[in-house]
Specification:
Elements (H helix, E strand, L loop, with lengths): L1 H31 L6 H6 L3 H6 L2 H7 L7 E5 L5 H10 L12 E6 L2 H13 L5 E5 L12 E7 L8 H11 E12 L8 H10 L2 E8 L3 E8 L2
Parallel strand pairs: 1-2, 1-4, 2-3, 4-5
Antiparallel strand pairs: 5-7, 6-7
The chain binds S-adenosylmethionine (SAM).
């Protein structure tokens, strides 16, 4: 009987400990060696726990995305949040009226973009443009977007401050820049870290939602 208790205790304590150790090890490696995640991981992170913490439709609302907006998403992964953003921008989300919004999504990985394109075609969504592009050199005119957002991306970018200047450039004067992060992501950056990067490019914090485990930061131009 005692043995059974020891085994149960080892399982109950051991599995969370193993997960924390693995997460910490990946975090340390990623701190020194940053690269875009492989495509299969983009599917793995789109799981029920993640969708509970960051529900796709609700995340578009948290981001302040309104019907009719012109939106840039950076790093769509498998495109789940792109589809929700597109529905809201077009005024098709539950309880929303309006139309005409457009979502442009860019990713450095061509396979991610191909995946997103397949999904938007399968769902008959017409207000999304998916393009291969790098955050350091966005192929858009100054002031193009009302909203630039990214979810679990900025911690994966080797030179985030350089990227912030590009976000600033493509945003309209009244545009907003939004980051959503979740602690489950090994690249999760602290709020203070993102704040330092954003402030260095001339952004001022407009709104903060969430808590230590997951958060959304909404920034506006300060100058
Ligand atoms: C962790 S995934 C997040 C995917 C999705 N936003 C989500 O939350 O499920 C990060 C995404 O950022 C993309 N990415 C990484 N570096 C990039 C860069 N320099 N320019 C554009 N996209 C990049 C990756 O290819 C990947 O699709």
């Amino acid at each position: 009987m005692i043995d059974a208790w020891w085994i149960l205790a080892a399982i109950v304590l051991g599995i969370p400990l193993l997960v924390v150790l693995l997460h910490t090890a990946i975090r340390i490696v990623r701190k020194f060696h940053k690269f875009p995640i492989p495509q299969f991981l983009a599917d793995l992170i789109d799981n029920p726990l993640r969708r509970r913490i960051q529900p796709p439709d609700e995340t578009a609302v948290r981001h302040g995305l309104e019907p009719g907006m012109t939106v840039l998403e950076v790093g769509p992964g498998n495109g789940t949040y792109t589809l929700a953003a597109a529905r809201r921008a077009a005024g098709q989300a539950p309880g929303v009226v309006g139309d005409g919004g457009q979502v442009v999504t860019i990713d450095i990985e061509p396979r991610m973009i191909e995946r997103v394109e397949r999904r938007i075609q399968a769902e008959g969504i017409t207000n999304v443009e998916a393009r291969v592009a790098d955050v350091y050199d966005l192929p858009f005119d100054d002031g193009t977007f009302d909203l630039v957002y990214m979810i679990a991306v900025i911690g994966e970018i080797p030179e985030p401050e350089r990227a912030m200047h590009e976000f600033y450039r493509v945003l309209s004067p009244s545009g907003t820049l939004v980051f959503s992060e979740v602690l489950l992501d090994p690249d999760y950056p602290l709020v203070q870290t993102v704040s330092r990067w954003a402030a260095s490019a001339g952004f001022r914090l407009r709104k903060r939602l969430g808590n230590y485990f997951y958060y959304t930061l909404i920034w506006e131009k300060d100058r």
